[in-house]
Amino acid sequence: MPDHFRFSYQGSTRGSTGRARASDRWSAADDASTAAPVNPLLATAVFAITFFLPITLPMGMAEAWVQWRSESGEPLKWDRREIEMEARLGGNEGATCLPRAEGVELYEFGPCWEDVVRSAADQYYRTDARLRIDITSSPAERTCIIGDGTNTITVGDTYCGYAFGDRSVAIAFNRYTIKNGIILESDVVFNTAVTWNSYSGPRRRLSNDTMLFDMHRVAIHEFGHTWGLYHPDESGQTVAAIMNSAVSDIDRLQPDDIEGILAIYGSKGISAGAADPPRVVLQAIAPITAEDRSTIRIRCEDEQSDCPVFLDCTDQGSGRAFSGALSDQIPAGGSFALSSADIVRITGGTPWDKRLTCKLRSPRDVSGQVWTRSGNGVLINNTAVAEPSYSEERYTVRLYSIPAPGGVDESNIRVHCPIDAHSDCDDIAIRCWEDDGTLHEGSLETVERGSVEHFQSQRLADLIDHRWQGMGLSCKLVSSFGITAQILTRTGGNALVNNSEVGRLPMQR
Ligand SMILES: [Zn+2]
Q1: H helical segments located in 286-397
Q2: What pLDDT does residue 462 have?
Q3: Buried-most residue among 142, 216, 306, 493 (CB within 10 A)?
Q4: Which residues hold their Cβ within 5 A of ligand 1, which is an ion?
Q5: 5-265, what's its fold?
Q6: Distance from Cα 23 to the centre of ligand 1, integer Å
């Protein structure tokens, strides 16, 4: 098969095989628009882009996304909705969280740069077009080769050997077939000449007044190029779009960007998957073998659109993952009930052993409850979870009225380390007060990220080295992680109650 594709790159060092077209001037023009470029490189880039990009605009549209086009005017797009990209963000340094070697703590979307680009790529999956970039980690050198057929995400002071313009913070280029504009390869490079972090909201500056760039929004922009979008503002449009050519306070996909993606790829019809955001975490779902029977009830909080739901669950006993999607969408505003047996069926047919923790993922807003009928027939709403409050860089979870060990009521305390914690949750301080105000302290060893540590009141008594009477103990769990906790109590009649809920008015300012 003849070589019918070309490279896209900035500059003309490749002679006539590829002109300046893919150049991506995600410029550092941080304040004003791109008006009046004084930098000759910038001016060149603007010229090159407008010259080589024949843009056709739909008539009469006040706002319009722009599709990247080949020199012959073919709109560029992939012939599929799922592509793989290799993240080469760390070289061979052997660290697990690359390139944290530089000592950077990411403000958001971390802890690793790879997490940042994954989150950015997922934004396209969350549109109805369901475009997916599977990002794999690679220990390869942080370099890219245009034309080797591998889609890469790299960092460097050049892009695949070419010089960045001095206002370019990142570049994406696509290789495609001349005949029909089918994209064959996409490479994204972040310029190491600027300082990176990841955060949402307005742009931030360092103390020396230089710009601190948010890799998350820049990656969303670059992946827009990967999928075939171009800069609306460079075709005479004024529209709010992450695809505009300059980095701005826009930190996520805008309706115009999404419209563009949907126009190019079409709507896949909505389904839910592992890349959708978790909407609610439900804990302590009983296995089918238990005497307690659990039912989870899921409500589609979106009152206009139906809700697809993906179950993303972990067994606290084996740590095994159970996942799968509901076969039907929940009607807008409606609810759907699932038994433990239904969950087994949806997640592949194998029952779990202990208690299941499930995240309900959906592109729409959904809520959930766990109802558990205990062995003796008593039904309880088992949803209440003690949520952490945050102050002075510490999270605090409060548990009240914990029954003493050895009495007729036996409590099981469940501490959950969220899957999005920066690491395993360690160093959890336990501070408990008796009714007369006497303080007893202890600490809990590590709870693995994404898992639940559960223990009974006897163990709590050991941890704080104190035994109390009746329900005369209230505790705080204090840590640097957003842990949650539940306290389930088996009462004298073998009924189970969830006593995590506490009456409390919201804090007044
Ligand atoms: Zn761009």
Answers
A1: 340-346
A2: 95
A3: 216
A4: 24, 26
A5: Collagenase (Catalytic Domain) (3.40.390)
A6: 8
